Amino acid sequence: MAKAELKEIATENSPTRALAEYIAGLSYKDIPEEVIAHIKFCLIDSLGCALFGSTLPWGKIIRSFAKELGKGKGALIWGDGAEVPSTSAPLANGTLIHSFEMDDLHRVGVIHPGAEAIPAADALIRHDGNVDGKRFLTAVAVGYEIGCRVAMTGGASQLRRGFHPSATSGTFAAGAAAAKMLRLNPEKTVHALGIAGTQAAGLMAAQYASMVKRMHPGRSAQAGVYGALLAARGFTGIEDILEAPYGGFCSTFIDKPNLSHLTQDLGERFETLNVGFKPYPCCGSNHTSIDALKKILREHPDVRAENVAKIVIRTTRATKLHVGWPYEPKSMTTAQMNLLFCVAVLLHDRDFFVDQVTERSIRRKDVLQTTRKMEVSEDPELEALGDEGRHGVKLDVQLRDGKIYSEKVLHAKGSDKHPMTRAEVLQKFRLLASRVLSPSRVDKLQETLLNLEKLDDARKLGKLLAP
After folding, report:
1. How does pLDDT run across 239-281, given as a tens digit for each residue?
2. Mind listing the pLDDT tens digit for each residue in 187-232?
3. CA-to-CA distance for 447 and 264, rounded, in angstroms?
4. Within the chain, what is the greatest distance between any pair of CA atoms?
């Protein structure tokens, strides 16, 4: 769709309707090759996370629960192979992707779009039995783009108010992907978004000691599928859900929403390209501190846990509030969301991946003692940078002999400003997927995803995700 047409729609109608027109009108050929290539890696990364998630206690519970919700034609639960209704599978699969804080992240929107868009699109592959790789890729791509744009209207604002953006903005990623899979017209797509978005919910207090945070994106994915399936039947939603001045999504969840993000350069500039990948299994707000300490450890061999007197981390108010609270070993969720734990365990193990976050490691006495030597404070300079510095840190390691080593990091490894290489993303995928699949199956799945546009029947993808 031409830029002039989109501007006319946005002016004459509403941002919600403009997005619906875009979703309904987008075709595979409209998506630049670099966006398709990036979406493939988003799929690779997300599905690796999901497979690993299927092995975890909460992953097993959600898989079992989804099976109890009903049986019949629908979609497959990844890492399991069981077929359940299309309204049940996204709850499980979205939860699996987000199950260990390793899924992709849009830095400014503070959203994990893969955990909503991919399960919603996948849930409807079997709906008419005629979905090829290009159609699936298109639905996932539009889900990412819409989800990221909605999140950009005020993701950090939502976080400060105590909402989880993947649980709120994520409903639009899922609603867009599901509407595209069903080939809804613009009018019905408006209602699909209006039904999905009104189900937005998710509170960040879940980060302290619960499994339920893992489920937030799963509920978003499910809300999107509900929205599209109901809209297809003529059920109506909030037609101006994004811009409504009272009770609209942006006016309710965000302090000062910037609605220009919704439609500015829509179809020409793809926010999807700014979705990054996470090399560490923890909250994205912790990654800059991990990067800073890793660099200090590489450059200064005398920095060892037993020699450290104090670690001071200066950061933004949002990051301090989100992850900089005193650490208590209540659960693995608590540990992964906590800045002090992640930095402390890295100092001791000189590594931070899935084996550093276990029921045993989160209660280690040496790690707990180190967290007591850490201080997190607000930094006015970083705060003044706004969204560009939201995750920024200045980290000082003070040794017992008086030496101080300092490192400043504004953008984490894996973010859009400092991306992981394709080889690094593939290595992460293989490490995670191999916990469930045989080496030959991992090879086949990777090859299929890298050549997804050539797949004649997207149902084959789900079968490759079964152990």
Report:
1. 999 999 999 999 999 999 999 999 999 999 999 999 999 999 9
2. 999 999 999 999 999 999 999 989 999 999 999 999 999 999 999 9
3. 35
4. 72
Give the tokens for residue 190: 């408006």
3-state secondary structure of 405: strand
Confidence label for 7 from pLDDT (cuts 50, 70 and 90): very low
* Amino acid identity, position 170: G
Distance (Å, whole) CA 101 – CA 333: 9
- What is the C-alpha separation between 65 and 76, in angstroms, rounded? 14
Residue 204 is encoded by which pair of tokens? Answer: 């960040």
C-beta pairs of 290-294 under 8 Å, 24+ apart in sequence: 290/342, 290/343, 290/346, 290/352, 290/412, 291/409, 291/412, 291/413, 292/393, 292/395, 292/407, 292/408, 292/409, 293/343, 293/346, 293/347, 293/395, 293/397, 293/407, 294/346
pTM equals 0.94
User: What are the tokens at 65?
Assistant: 């629960």
Q: Could you tell me the domains of the chain?
A: 3-279+447-464 (1.10.4100.10), 284-409 (3.30.1330.120)
